[in-house]
Amino acid sequence: MDKEIKNLAMQQRTGKISWLFILLVIAMVLFLFSILGTISSDRHIPSQNAIIHDRSFRGAIISADNYTLSASRKIYQAVIRGESIDPDKKEMFITLFGIYSGIPKQTIRKRFSEKNGKGNIILSKTLNAKQAMQLKALAYKLRQLKVFRSIKVRSGLEVLYGLDIIEVGESRRFPLSDVLSPVLGYVRKKSDGHYTRPQGQKGLERKYEKHITSKKDGYFKGKRDVGGNIIHDKNSIEKQRVDGMDLYLNIPLAFQRRIEMMVDTMKKRIDADEILVGVMESNTGKVLALASSERYNPSHITQSDIAALNPKFAEYPYEAGSVLKPITLALALDKNLVTPQTVFNTFNGRMKIGKRRTITDDEKFPSLNATDIIVHSSNVGISQISWRLTGKEFRDGLLAFGFARPSGIDLSRDLPGRIKSERLLNHQMHRANSSYGYGMMVTFAQLFKAYSAFNNDGVAVTPRLADYLEDAKGRHYVLPPTVGDLHPIGKKAARQIHEILKEVVMRGTGVKAQYPGLEIGGKTGTAHIARHGRYVREYHSSFYGFANDKEGHKYTIGVLVIRAKKYRHYFASKSAVPTFKNTVRILVEQGYLKPDPTVEAKVSKDIPLYGDKSTEAEVAAPILPPLPKEKTPPPVTREKPQKVIPVPHKKPKKRVISPIMDEAADLF
């Protein structure tokens, strides 16, 4: 019995010792973790070492003529501890801070009142580097004037606070306001909790985000002296920052701005919703201008700007209308199915398909050759040309020109649009409908690219806004386009269409685009706008073509007018063509095109050079003169938008129908 009692007592003592040992081990572990945490944490005690951060910058976007279009700058925050200001000198602080910062005194007083003059008061969050430097100097002077007083903190210590100027981020500035918007794009703020940086959201700012964004921050680290300054010695460490690369564009600011001013004037003259204009070198794809009349200031975006944020050049699919006719003919010419002289029966402008459907023309001709089908913009004629192609050949040809796929233009979004399926295009009505640009969706960039083939021996070049990227060492980097150049047709067919487009300007719907001493060609298009699956009496008017001189300068030019509301100005000949002509005029004035002086000399002084009897002062003005007043029209065809009537239901009467809006089955 005694032995059992002794064993029990021994077990109890062993257990107590074991628990005591475990508690000691736990205590030791906690102690070690506490020491490790103290070593690794930022302690609020004077340190022998100091570090100066040098945060990297986002790269700038620069025009071809070396103007900065967007760039970054550091922003600072001014903070004061409310209780630290001597009440008798508070008014002096407010006055001096207002003078040095440029912030109204009423605003500063409001900041104090919002926090009842206590705690940390943020006086400004958007100070630039110059203001920050001035306020740092002010902070020193205020200490000398004893504006600040010591206050007791929770620990019981007396602490003297002052005016703190803290680097809090990087902001994006757009010094030229709305120039090159919406192509340039905009940014939003992205914060990691301590530092705010800009992040591209649209346009070039978004497209080249990976390359122009800040790369690596730098710093200088070393021991400090009693004044808190870092000692430069062999033990100090310096790491250079790596900024984002600068983006250089092909677009010269002077030319871009002239085009923007012109489209602003044209928009008012014809009361349009928006006008888009693009100019690029036909053999290189370098874009010299990409202008919209709907622009905004990326630094101050308002509610009314939301509709303009998306660049319509590559994000606005629409039905092209008659500007697609030269492309249809090009496909047939390239396969030797027709020649420019092949004659077609055009049935005096009315051709039946089946029992109930009729394709019509505005002008009535019993017959037209392939050239005149384009010159007079005949729906009847181009429909028959499309029938020489199979549905597969027609569809494959459109794909070869770049339709229903991204154009490759270097913007943030590049929508593909759509074309009909091969099954539908095997039907005559659907193939005819698409041959003159209905029942399919295209973008400005796609047509812009496609038309370059007619001025470049069959090679459709990809529009390129950016020229190159440059790093801090001056090295240049050129990024290949996401979609390369296309070869949709051969040289012979391209040159044939080139000559036909010149005929359109000489005697067709594009006569107002003529410019003495230059080679001008192009095609008009006036197409209905569809809303909620129905065509309405609103129109897209367009003109795509080229302007060349004898010195080898060759430019592809595109114009799209959205909803011109002035009476009868929805005709492309009254809206898009004059805009094209004014664009050519600016190319001449800026020295990009040089008209043949011998041809110019033969032009009578009584014939207005710009389609308007402008005075010399008006010609030299930065804004183009008013559009010419309508006089007796020349004896040429004027393209009209095709009438659209829905497919009949039961017991329909005979109807005239041209473009037909197809539903989901037609989607690419």
From TrEMBL:
Compartments it resides in:
Membrane
Q: Where is the composition biased (Basic and acidic residues)?
A: 628-642
- Domain Penicillin-binding protein transpeptidase residue range list: 277-583
InterPro entries associated with the record: Beta-lactam/transpept, Beta-lactam/transpept-like, PBP_dimer, PBP_dimer_sf, PCN-bd_Tpept
Instruction: State a single Gene Ontology molecular function.
Output: penicillin binding
Q: Which chain regions cross the lipid bilayer?
A: 20-39
Asked if Membrane is a keyword of the record, the answer is: yes
UniProt entry tagged with the keyword Zinc: no
What broad class describes the main subcellular location of this protein?
membrane
One GO BP on record is: cell wall organization
Q: Which GO terms describe its cellular component?
A: plasma membrane
Q: Which UniProt keywords apply?
A: Carboxypeptidase, Hydrolase, Membrane, Protease, Transmembrane, Transmembrane helix
Q: Where is this region: Disordered?
A: 621-656
Q: Where is the Penicillin-binding protein dimerisation domain?
A: 58-232
- A UniProt-annotated Pfam family: PBP_dimer
What PANTHER family does the database record attribute to this sequence? PEPTIDOGLYCAN D,D-TRANSPEPTIDASE, PEPTIDOGLYCAN D,D-TRANSPEPTIDASE FTSI
What name appears for this protein in its UniProt entry? Penicillin-binding protein 2
Q: Which organism does this record belong to?
A: Sulfurovum indicum
What phylogenetic lineage does the species belong to?
Bacteria, Pseudomonadati, Campylobacterota, Epsilonproteobacteria, Campylobacterales
